[in-house]
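Hi there,

I know you've been waiting on this one. I reran it after we fixed the sequence typo, so this is the corrected version. Both the input and the resulting structure follow.
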Amino acid sequence: MTAKPPTAPNTEAAGRWPASPWNGGWYLPAQTLPSPNFGARPEGAQIDLLVLHSISLPPGEYGTGAVQQLFTNRLDWDAHPYYQGIRGVEVSAHFFITREGRVWQFVDCGQRAWHAGASHWRGRGNCNDDSIGIELEGLEGLTFEPAQYAALAQLCADLAAHYPIRHVAGHEHIAPGRKRDPGPGFDWPRLRSALAGQALQWPAATAADV
């Protein structure tokens, strides 16, 4: 059974906005599309890591809706030859940011999404247990859009204000040799600069002064 996200309060007409962008583990600015691919976090897990990914389906094609279909187990495996290689896979991330900067949410942040796989970071394994996964629409090695960086920076800041976030890493950092996203086209110094006011730790290769 999927978790039902809350409905954002209708406050715009009255000129009032919620004091917080959160309703529990749901991010009110996001478009919600609940995924069945999640589970409970281990007891005592601290949500202190943000893991950044990139994804596009088919690879290099944007705005197809296939990512949303994949994360909700509704992808037509016969719609493209590439899908045969991932047929039957059940995955999810907490968030997906489109090329236009639109944010989608699939899993309550209090729950464990299935995005990291076999992984290890800051002395701990099984990064799904205590991380939040953010997918950027794109292809590893290629660049991302300004609207995506703006949405990502705001989302990261809001997450850090709501959870004890202390670390940011890419899938390539927590699963080296197995994963390469978001890849060399991702501008880590740009994100680090946008979040300079946050007490965050970054992978050594991305932490050059900006």
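Quick highlight: The CA atoms of residues 98 and 137 lie 5 Å apart.

Best,
R. S.
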